[in-house]
Amino acid sequence: MIAMMEPYVPVIIGILYSAFAVLIHLLSFRFIRKASKTVLLPIDQTDNLQEGILKKSSGIKKAETLIEQYNISSRLKFYYRNLAIAYYENYYVFTICSIVYTIFMAITIFLVAGDGWTNADISIKVLALMTIFFASCYYFLPNVMNNKLNLKKNMDGVKIFQKIQFDILSFLSRIDTAEQDEINTFIANIYNSIKNNYDYNINLDTTLLDKNPLDNFKGLKPK
Fold first, then answer.
1. C-beta of residue 192 within 8 angstroms of C-beta of residue 71
2. Which residue of 34, 133, 184, 220 shows the fewest CB atoms closer than 10 Å?
3. Contact 214, 132 (CB under 8 A)
4. Given 3-state DSSP classes, what are the helix, strand and coil percentages for the chain, each rounded to the nearest 5?
5. Are 16 and 126 in contact (CB under 8 A)?
6. What residue ranges define each of the domains in the chain, with the CATH number in brackets?
7. At a CB cut-off of 8 Å and minimum separation 6, what does 220 contact?
C-alpha cells in the first residue's frame, strides 16, 4: 500500500502545503484586519462628531450646497481611506507571510544541505521548492503592488478631503452673517479643491515581474 502511494507523495505534499499557505494568509489577514479597526476607531469617532456638527446647519437655506459638498468630500475621503486600508492590510499580511516562509526556507535548505539535492528525499525537495515559491511571491507582491507608495498617496487623499470638510464646517459656523457673494466664492473654491485633488491612486510596478525570484536568496542563484 505504501509503495503504491509513493508516486502521489509529491502531489499530496503540494496540496497540504497549499492548504497550509492559505491558512497562514487568512490568519495573518484576520490579525491585521482586527488591528486596523482598532487603529481607525478614533478617526471614526471624529467623523461621527463632525456629522453631529453638520446637522446643526441642515435647516439653513444658504448652507444646502455646502452640505452637499461636505457629503461629496466625505464619500471621496472614504474612497481613499478604503484603498489605504487595503494597502495597509496587504502590506503587513505580505510581510508576515514573507517572514514565515523565509524561516521555512532556511529550515528546508538546511535539510537539503545534509544529503545534497541529488540524494535528498523527494518530500524534502517538494517542501523546499514550494517554500521558495511562496517566499518569492510574498517577497515580490508588496513591491509589485507598490504598497508603501499607494498607502501614502491614498492617506494623503484622506487628509486633503478631511481638510476640505474642516474648511466647510468652519465656514458654516459663520454662514448666517456671510454675504451671498462670499458664499458663492467659497462654494466655487471648494468645487475647485475637490476637482483638483480627485485622482485614482493605484500604481503597479510590473518591472519586478521580469526578475528571477531566486536572485533574492543567497546561495540559491543559478550558475
1. no
2. 34
3. yes
4. 85, 0, 15
5. no
6. 8-205 (1.10.287)
7. 109, 132, 214
Q: Which residues of the chain fall below pLDDT 50?
A: 1-2, 208-210, 212-223
Amino acid at 75: R
Joined together, the cell numbers standing for residue 27 give: 490568519
What secondary structure does DSSP assign to 201-221, as a single string?
Answer: -----GGGGGS-GGGGSTT--
Residue 6: the pLDDT is 61
pLDDT confidence of residue 26: 92
Which residues, at least 6 apart from 211, have a Cβ–Cβ distance to it below 8 Å?
140
Distance in angstroms (rounded) separating the CA atoms of residues 50 and 98:
40
| Cβ-based neighbour number of residue 24 at 10 Å | 18
Q: How far apart (Å, rounded) are the C-alpha atoms in residues 113 and 115?
A: 6
pLDDT by residue (tens digit) across 187-203?
999 999 999 988 776 65
Distance between CA atoms of residues 220 and 223, nearest Å: 9
- pTM, full prediction: 0.74
